[in-house]
Inverse folding.
């Protein structure tokens, strides 16, 4: 695609996305890609081959866009830094090429009685305790330096693929950065699912103190940087949020183990702060809701219309629209259909989604497509070809 054509297409998609957030009518529904390692499998590579090879990841990203013609992408193979984790000792990620799968172990690199030690010096604690438990015991300084260089190369590759999609294909990217809700760091990195679940009962005071400290130390600086970045067309996408659907992603995963009372105490105050600051600055938010979020709908009743989109995984999008009509929706297309039904059945359901949700909706896969059985390429192509030409 010529650069002039890509830039025009980008501007068109950006205007369409503005309309989605504002619940204004577009001539067609927008198409999102929630494809992760499935895109590697679809290209015909083994995970162990592609995830260690930046050139193959570029090929995968190009093929995925050229084959299916998306308007925006959640992942451009920027999630699994396998070269780095292998050098450090493997971390929690495991690849099974026989089953075409990558899975992450639930692990705890912080103990329930170490919250005070964290509070005294977070950076020192994370390096001396958390990182050392994550890495192999015999890790040398020379190996660490190589891993840091590999991390730099990994981020350079991510930036290259991001800019490639924007500048060569005129695509949008879903989000620029995320100021973690503090529980997300514990759930996904330090304490794990089991550890955090125990702490919610046995270490409530220490947990609350951790949330406050972590939010101040890590989430607020990230939020400030995103707000100050502004919006303008830049050569380096990391300097603003031009190429993105929204600058901020509120990632939702740890909330899946919370009841409403725990959500109100340990989760909502930090999300509310981010939402309020974004509202003051006129910034949009994208929320990737893994699990179900409708049980916390009451907290989002007062979100200003036009500033938030939820990417739904397990919630029924029609119920969500009825309950929170002021919030835009992405998702809706079930992977169990894409992976197991006929093309006709997939297209029929896509039409139902578009007709029923229409304005304020992005047609996307409901799950983060990661396994061969999540989707058949011919089904995804049929759905996208139909939706691209269907005027609702």
């Amino acid at each position: 695609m010529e650069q002039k054509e890509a830039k025009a297409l980008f501007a068109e998609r950006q205007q369409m996305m503005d309309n989605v957030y504002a619940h204004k009518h577009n001539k067609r529904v927008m198409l999102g890609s929630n494809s992760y390692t499935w895109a590697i499998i679809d290209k015909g590579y083994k995970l162990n081959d592609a995830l260690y090879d930046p050139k193959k990841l570029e090929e995968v990203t190009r093929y995925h866009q050229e084959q299916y013609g998306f308007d925006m992408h959640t992942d451009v193979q920027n999630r699994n830094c396998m070269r780095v984790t292998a050098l450090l000792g493997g971390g929690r990620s495991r690849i099974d090429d026989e089953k075409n799968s990558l899975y992450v172990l639930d692990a705890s690199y912080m103990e329930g009685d170490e919250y005070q030690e964290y509070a005294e010096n977070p950076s020192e604690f994370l390096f001396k305790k958390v990182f050392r438990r994550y890495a192999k015991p015999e890790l040398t300084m020379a190996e660490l330096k190589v891993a840091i260089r590999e991390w730099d190369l990994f981020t350079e590759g991510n930036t290259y693929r991001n800019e490639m999609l924007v500048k060569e294909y005129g695509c949008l990217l879903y989000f620029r950065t995320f100021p973690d809700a503090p529980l997300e760091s514990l759930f996904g990195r330090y304490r794990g699912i089991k550890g955090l679940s125990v702490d919610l009962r046995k270490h409530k005071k220490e947990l609350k103190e951790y949330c406050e400290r972590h939010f101040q130390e890590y989430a607020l600086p990230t939020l400030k940087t995103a707000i100050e970045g502004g919006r303008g067309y830049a050569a380096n996408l990391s300097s603003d949020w031009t190429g993105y659907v929204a600058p901020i992603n509120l990632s939702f995963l740890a909330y899946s183990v919370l009841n409403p009372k725990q959500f109100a105490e340990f989760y909502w105050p930090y999300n509310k702060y981010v939402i309020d600051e974004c509202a003051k600055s006129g910034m949009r938010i994208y929320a990737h809701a893994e699990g179900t979020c409708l049980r916390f709908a009451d907290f989002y009743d007062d979100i200003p219309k036009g500033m938030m989109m939820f990417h739904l995984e397990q919630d029924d999008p029609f119920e969500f629209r009825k309950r929170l009509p002021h919030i835009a929706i992405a998702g809706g297309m079930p992977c169990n259909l894409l992976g197991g039904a006929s093309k006709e059945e997939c297209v029929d359901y896509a039409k139902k989604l578009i007709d029923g949700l229409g304005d304020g909706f992005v047609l996307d896969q409901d799950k983060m497509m990661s396994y061969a059985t999540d989707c058949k390429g011919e089904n995804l192509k049929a759905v996208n070809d139909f939706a691209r030409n269907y005027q609702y």
